[in-house]
Design a protein that fits this description.
mainly alpha, 17 helices, about 80% helix, about 0% strand, disordered N terminus
Amino acid sequence: MSGQKKKGISREGLLLAVVVLFWFALYLHIPYQTPFLTAAGVAAGFTGTIVGAYGITQLVFRLPLGVLADYAGKHKIFVILGAGLAGFACLVRLLVPTGPGFLAANLISGCAASMWIAYMVLYSNYFSKKEQQKATSKVIMACNLGMCLAFVFSSCFYEKMGMAFLCGAGGIAGIVGVIGGVFVKEDLAPVVSKESSRPGIGNYLSVCKNKRLILFALLALIQQGIQMATAMSFTTQILENLGASALFIGCSSIFYMIAAVASAQFASTEVCERKGARFYVPLVFFLTAVYCILVPAAGNIYAIFILQAFPGMSTGILLSYLTSESMKEIPREKSSTAMGFFQAVYAVGMTVFPWAVGVLTENFSINTGYDFLASAAFIGTVVSLIYYKKTGR
């Protein structure tokens, strides 16, 4: 029995290591992508297209890839392919360090990020239905750790070594991820028996009608949209407007990711599970709304630095619960399709919310943009409170 336990821990640890390498390769260039392209003479409009390409490809590919993974009954191949594409995108940036080169690389990175579905589903399949929240929190923690290490690495080496060094390191991480993925274990039961015919595509897509899945996907749309519009973009602009140095802004992003890693780890513990989703989902949505109100009003870079813990909690605790709650009624053989739908829906928020804040900021003020985000977070608070009150008994 102890031997089986060790084997189980080994396969889980290996997949988590590949997850860290995967996200490390995807996010290594992110903090300095815009400054690099601007210095290279790329127009602001084209830079926006380059950045948006990463999200658009995920919006397009996540659901089809989820259906394909369920139809094939295999996830390991997508884990290997995801790590390979993440590393390949870094090599494209290294070899073609121009606007078109980064556009092509971001399209490839978007395809790679679409494979995240397979990583999450494969890891969750190592656990029983009762342990899905713990599994989801752990794999999201590994995801956040990969991003955090990427931010730390790029902050340490970009100024001295340049973008080429970062891209080379990302390419190596992708290659190591592919090698690790080859040894990842997959022990799914066959989707169909030899005697029966394989279900049609419509059979898999029918899972997208699940009301619980739709509700939590829409809540995740709000959560991810706010994250992308604040901690990943406009909060950085606010810090810069207040006179923060590049190093301070980098440290602020690192602190946000450390908070995300720590809170995801907390979400996987029994202490967190005692209160559960019905307590933490509305609470963290409310704290996110408070964050959106305080950041533009703070007027102090150190206060905003501390407030970065709130979006960290959102990425760690809230996203973990929204993901696990969305999948509770989903059959295992349709889990990749459901996860593809879930992630495609929240990809809309990642694209629309930053755009909306940009428009509101341009026509009114940054405060107006953050008021919009606070309102969305309050909606998430109220909707989740009503849902859990109705299903309380």
